[in-house]
Amino acid sequence: MADRGVDLSALPKEVRDQLAELDLELSEGDITQKGYEKKRAKLLASYIPQLPKADLSLPDVQPSPSHSADPSPSPEAPGPSTSSASRHHRAHRSGGARDERYRSDIHTEAVQAALAKHREEKMAPMPTKRRSYFVHSPMDNCTPPDTSSASEDEGSLRRKAALSAVLAQTLQSPDYWINRSVQSSSTSSSASSTLSHGESKTQPQPQPQPQPQPGVSLLADVLAHTRIENSVPPDVTSSTPQERGSRVDLPPAIRGMSRGQSRSSMLDTADGKRKGVPVSSRVSTKIQQLLNTLKRPKRPPLCEFFLDDSEEIVEVPQPDPNTPKPEGRQIIPVKGEPLGVVSNWPPALQASLARWGASQAKSPALTALDITGKPLYTLTYGKLWSRSLKLAYTLLNKLGTKTEPVLQPGDRVALVYPNSDPGMFWVAFYGCLLAEVIPVPIEVPLSRQDAGSQQIGFLLGSCGVSLALTSEVCLKGLPKTPNGEIVQFKGWPRMRWVVTDTKYLTKPSKDWQPHIPTANTDTAYIEYKASKEGTVMGVAVSKIAMLTHCQALTQACNYSEGETLVNVLDCKKDMGLWHGVLTSVMNRIHTVTVPYAVMKACPMSWVQRVHIHKARVALVKCRDLHWAMMAHKDQKDINLSSIRMLIVADGANPWSVSSCDAFLNVFQSHGLRPESICPCATSPEALTVAIRRPGARGAPLPARAILSMAGLSHGVIRVNTEDKNSALTVQDVGHIMPGALMCIVKPDGPPQLCKTDEIGEIVINSRAGGTMYYGLPGVTKNTFEVIPVNQAGAPIGEIPFARTGLLGFVGPAIDSIHQVGLYCLALVPANTLPKTPLGGIHICETKQSFLDGNLHPCNILMCPHTCVTNMPKPRQKQPVDVGPASMLVGNLVAGKRIAPATGRELGVVDDQDLIRKHQFLSESLQWRAQTDPEHVLYVLLNSKGVPVCTATCAQLHKRAEKITATLYEKGGLNTGDNVVLLYPPGIDLIAAFYGCLYAGMIPVTVRPPHPQNLAATLPTVRMIIDVSKAACILTTQPLMRILRSREAAASVNVKTWPTIIDTDDLPRKRPPQIYKPPTAEMLAYLDFSVSTTGMLTGVKMSHAAVSTLCRSIKLQCELYSSRQIAICLDPYCGLGFVLWCLSSVYSGHQSILIPPMELETSLPLWLTTLSQYKIRDTFCSYSVMELCTKGLGTQTEMLKARGLNLSCVRSCVVVAEERPRLALSQSFSKLFKDLGLSPRAVSTAFGSRVNLAIGLQGTSGPDPSTVYVDMKSLRHDRVRLVEKGAPQSLPLMESGTILPGVRVIIVNPETRGPLGDSHLGEIWVNSPHSASGYYTIYGEESLQADHFNTKLSFGDPQTLWARTGYLGFIKRTELLDASGDRHDALFVVGSLDETLELRGLRYHPIDIETSVSRAHRSIAESAVFTWTNLLVVVAELSGSEQEALDLVPLVTNVVLEEHHLIVGVVVIVDPGVIPINSRGEKQRMHLRDSFLADQLDPIYVAYNM
Question: Which helix (H) or strand (E) holds 473?
């Protein structure tokens, strides 16, 4: 500790008081040990005597073995400097045996952190499922102390490192101190043990280390040649905090996670008071927590994302100065012991079998078990030899004719045998060796579409296999076609199946002997190996390699004749094949095979077999240790003292440590010796890499290394002493194999030798390894012919090494290192992951299920913020130094024109009569009623397509007069009062509108409330009535009853409605006079609408604007009285209202009115109307088009049969205030092409609040054009045109031809200067039919002036423009317009208010939503919005609720890949939750408010940490 050599009594009193206070805090758990030591060191810093320089001059001192005891005091006897409080603290930590697991440092600190946090925060982000209890018991999220900067005091580390360099030269064996540092830092049996009970053991005082024998080289011993001057050895000058007595095992929940994710969640009821949280604060505090996670230090990037060419867009992560770097010197290749030359070793493996078959025929070779774990049969060496001979003879002589045999020596043959029938497999394998054909053992395919059968097919194809050997039982079980043949498995070549049961084999003739040559380099067998991507390749093992490997295993494991071995592993490959089939025959060992099926039924079966057969060797995986331990009840009679080697096949994995320890813990009392547990490391390419030899009785066990995860993340070995949370414990896997040469190289890039303290890939040169991937020469070269290079890049020799695929260092080998943060943690129900035939998890199938959304997890946690660190760099908005004038000049110099676009001229009306007729719509109607009274203006259809109401000019005029008279009588109103029209879509609405104009009132059309959903729809009605200060409401009797009903009273105050007049039964009265406005600038009507951003705005439309708008539409669409148009739109605002109520009266054409809600009961209504009336022009909304596309898409044949014909339609215009939905328009055109719809017919209109109609595809202009723009540039507010199909391209369709009399210009919204052709900016419009301003209660003049009467800062400062609030660009096309000039196309990109500003870039919600909707078939609709820099995605789930969690990672992935954005929150809701307005536009701000008020009732909310 820091107080070494300080006399505490001599310190000033205030320092002593502060120290005492610190000790008290530590003992009560108010401060962590690490914090305590830091603060204490700071307090004592000025009182510590400096080390005299002489202490460091140690080079000449040679300590004798007796001196090499651990210089640091043992944990049981703390140094004299250790304060009593910390001693008390230690005692307090290590309670009873049971207590140890739950009262850990981590737990205590977590509880303290939770309590501390509880005072500040209400709620932590927990993924929430519907109807959960989280409201009642909020969880608190506490993060363990962050250890990202492991070196607080780099200076002190350097001092220690300097000292260690000196020490390392003086100590005889450097592994001496690595073992010491490891032991002093780890005093428990295991760091990652989840199951060890009892108090953590303290290590005994170390023995003096004996010198290693020459030739024998433990992996850890290599340190003797390769001094590691890296991680800090124990500091001999002071008693450091390494020797804290109790080493606490990590709780299972934390163990498997990397730092930063190990959050333990405590129930937040510590003070007993707060049980629930106010609803409004729940969401926002969760989000606040999420934001806090963004401030955490980042991890190295995930290489899968964002390999971007253009440097300017990708942020180059700055190297962290605290990153640990390797400091050792270059490693020296390590040699295994020489392979002993024994005189009686056979010349080939088959020769061993021949020898035992003849001389030891009765000796047992193999015992197989039945499903209950009882012996089924025993195969003797005599039987094995005679059956293998028969099979070899049959294969070579009986499959074809003498002149044309089916098999030649060297051909490859598949071995298809279930694991439960090892005898048949052994015979087949040795039969193939004797026949000199090459066996390729594979798994039994279970079905035609079996999880890996396609990859197995690739293996069989690359090895050229066309014949399969199998047993009769297995053949019967294979899937068959109806006529009894075996099915053709997916991806397999055509196979011939041969049954190898004894009754089908032929006894060889007397003179036939198999040819057994001396082992050479020809291939003996092929072992399959699945790569990380799921492809299956065959590793070819030569005859000499097979023999040498058996010899090396015999020497390493010290096998002797006649021993018994229990094998739980798969005997077709890996250790199960090498030990249990090959080496065992070489040494006449009796193998007892325990198949996987038996283990499932009786996990203790292998332990019982060891006991019954007194087996000397057992071959298992961690899984088998774990299962046996779990199934271990009171099996008192089990005795494992016979075992000299318990070989753990996956001992190279860090988790094996805990399984081995826990198994030893349980079975040591049954005679299991600690030194008999032998982990090993293997790889399909290099076969056995290393195996631990059993130690002598009572010798100290090999040391463990407790490594820092932070170091491992950077590929550097650092001994972890401080934070138990970020430690990884690994065990060594013993010596490298006899006769092998090994070194460690960098896993990526050229195979450069690593430094001594660096993690790298283990490469091996040995005669006993694989030779190639059969049939794949390209991949072979990179793996089997690696020549390591030194730091300078020069090869270190000419010997080729094979890559093992194992990461490790000289010392313990490690199979996998946490190189990146946790991206997604998904918990699935037990036994639902795809399995390999032997019960392991099928990794690539699992990955595929995850990516396809078929995993169905029951809980999921995404942590993209912590591990995706190479995002495109945020855009720094440049200050606008360049003035708009310079930009204008710049554009001119660059040859770019400024981008205005103009509709054709409106023309001048000379005729006074026409002026009178057309100046006011009220006069137009009177004029028509006089001149053409019987002309039908309107036809209203019901859901059956039957006209329920028509209106001629005269009828409409008379009905309007009645309403005027009623208004004068009942209303008591004044001229200019506002009157709300509350009607369903129909002719009553039109008559009421003209009745108001006749009376000099201002009509305000309002959508009536939905009778089934008053709570949601009535408040909007009330709001418009209040905002418009309406003096009176005109409506129908049913609606009047609703307004005054009890249900309505629940949502609004029904006593304060203005005067309500129902217009159903009007008296036959004419008004005394019809009002005529004094000027055309007077107000005609108010247009109220809720924008997509949730703003309610009313705009004022003057009489002049109304008549010019109608004239403009008449010219564009060529409307006159003999024409018919069909309208399927909501008639309450915008262009929909103009077409429904105004246009026909002005132009005299007939309008067929189809209320969109009628389509809900009769989908084909609109299309059948078009066909029946032979309509040429029709107007609809996107919601109508979507209804038809989704609902009628499959019924086109039926509609065609009914005679539906759309060839008459020449223009179908979608009325919208948004970017054209190209995909929807195209699918509509394609679907109904068969019904005669012209592909050129569908187009889009564009309007906004300031100008209801800016673009509208007319009859004479060119067809709407489509361009493709680059989405990345769009985010930077630039337009870059690309080719169709380019990556990241976005198709945009022109928003209709600009209307007559309209001028449009593109303007930079910041500088207000005009922009050039194809530049993105705000669309400004100048037109006689723009609205004259907002109708607001308080009259916000500033907003008014800004939006309606604004001027350019440069260029043409006189013209007054209206700002639409939409981003877009104008592009001059090659097409010609009606006047013969080149056509300027207007492209709308999206609403400025709706764009999301994230990381300085501008995103349009529709683009992200398009990606989200494509992510999974069950996403019906989606919407996105932001909340405090977090992106929230709401997705409607159309499938079953169990798919909800599948959507979370898919949505996160797709947004990450396509938009380089991290989704903060994913909300899965029921269909229909996302609010949509009458135009079919999503109300994202309403959705956002509902989410924050917690009113969505989501199926699942995932907070991506």
Answer: helix 472-477
